[in-house]
Amino acid sequence: MGIKSYLPLFKLRICSLITFSAVVGLIGSQTGSLSASKLFFLIVATMLASASASAFNHYFDSDIDSVMKRTSRRPLPSGGASSRFVLAIAGALFMLSLFVSFKALNHMVAIHLALGAFVYAILYTAWLKRRSWLNIIIGGLAGSFAVLAGGASATPEFCMPPVLLAIVMFFWTPSHFWSFAIYHKEDYERAGVPMLPVVIGDNRTALYILINTILLVASSLVPFFMGYNGWIYFITALLVGGYFVGWNIRLLKRPAKEVAWKNFKVSMMYLGALFTSVIIEAAFRPFM
Questions:
Q1: Engineered SS bond to 154: which of 23, 29, 148, 252, CB 3.0-4.6 Å?
Q2: Is the pTM of this model over 0.70?
Q3: Whole-Å CA distances, 244 to 99, 238, 267
Q4: Which segments of 124-206 are extended strands (E)?
Q5: What is the DSSP string of 186-231?
Q6: Alpha-carbon span 246 to 99, nearest angstrom
Q7: Residue 143 falls within a domain, yes or no?
Q8: Which pLDDT tens digit goes with each residue over 247-285?
C-alpha cells in the first residue's frame, strides 16, 4: 500500500479546518507584527496534533466504521492498515506535536493542543460517542482548544479575544455536525451510535440546530461589542449569521436529507467567512 492509501487516517480536511482555526486565534490575538516563524510552527504543531487525534479516532472506531457505508473503506476496516501501525503513528504524531510546541512556541500552546487531541480522541471517540447524544457537544471543545492554542502562541498569558472566538467555535460544532448526522442517520443507526437524530428524530434535531445557531450568532457578536473586533467582522457576522439561520429555518420546515446536507455546507461557509473576516480586519488594522 502506498502512502496515499494511509492519508484517510489523518482526515486532512478536518486537520486543515482545525489548523485554520488556530491561525485565526493567533492573528486575532496578535498586537504587533506577525512572526512568520511563529505562524509556521503553529501550523505544523496543530496539523500534527489534529492528525494524531484523527488516527486515534480511526483506531477506536474501526469496528463501527466497518458497518457504516460512509466509512467502510477506511484503512482499518478495509484491511489496508494494521491497528498496531495506526496506534503507533498516532502516538508518534502526538509526541512530535508536543515537541514542536515546547521547542518552537511555548508550554501553553502544547497544553491546549494536547487537551484538544485528548477531547477528540478520548472524551469524544472512546467514551461519549457510543454512550450519549451529548457526544458532539463535548467533542466540539477540540476545535475550541485549537483557537486557544493559536491565541497562546501570540501570548501565553490569558487573552480574551481567542477565548471569545473559541466560544464561537464551540457553538458552531453542534449546528455543523447535527446537520451532517441527519444526512447520515441510517449509518449511525446501523452502527448503534446515539447521534441526536437517531435519539430524537430529524424534526426535533432541526429545532435544536436552529436554537444552537441562534446562540452561535449571538456569541459571534460579542467580540465586536467588547471592542476586540471592528466593523468588517461585525457586518460579516450579521450577514453570514442571518444566512445560516435562514437555512436552519428551511431545515426546520423540511428536515430532508438534501436540506440537511446544504445546511452542513452552509455551516462550513459560515465559519470560513467569519474567521476570514478576523484575518482581513487584522490586515487592515494598521491603516485604521
A1: 29
A2: yes
A3: 39, 10, 7
A4: none
A5: HHHHHHT---HHHHH-HHHHHHHHHHHHHHHHHHHHHHHHTTSS-H
A6: 44
A7: yes
A8: 999 999 999 999 999 999 999 999 999 999 999 999 887
**196 and 111 share a domain?**
no
The residue segments making up the domain with residue 136 are 10-157
In this structure, what DSSP letter does residue 146 have? H
Q: Which of 128, 157, 186 is the last residue of a domain?
A: 157
User: Domain ends where: 157, 188, 204?
Assistant: 157
Parts of the chain with a pLDDT under 50 = none
Grid cell for residue 53: 487525534
C-alpha 241, offset from chain centre: 18
Task: Compute the CA torsion angle 151, 157, 159, 165 (nearest 10 deg).
Answer: 30
Note every long-range contact of 282-287, with CB atoms under 8 Å and residues 24 or more positions apart, other chains counting.
282/27, 282/28, 282/30, 284/232, 285/230
CB of 14 closer than 8 Å to CB of 53: no
Does residue 240 sit in the same domain as residue 128? Answer: no
Has residue 259 been placed in a domain? yes
Whether the CA torsion 225, 213, 170, 15 is positive or negative: it is negative
Measure the CA–CA gap between 79 and 27, rounded to whole angstroms.
42
pLDDT tens track for 184-209 = 999 999 999 999 999 999 999 999 99
Question: In angstroms, rounded to a whole number, what is the distance separating the alpha carbons of residues 197 and 184?
Answer: 9
The total number of structural domains that make up the chain = 2
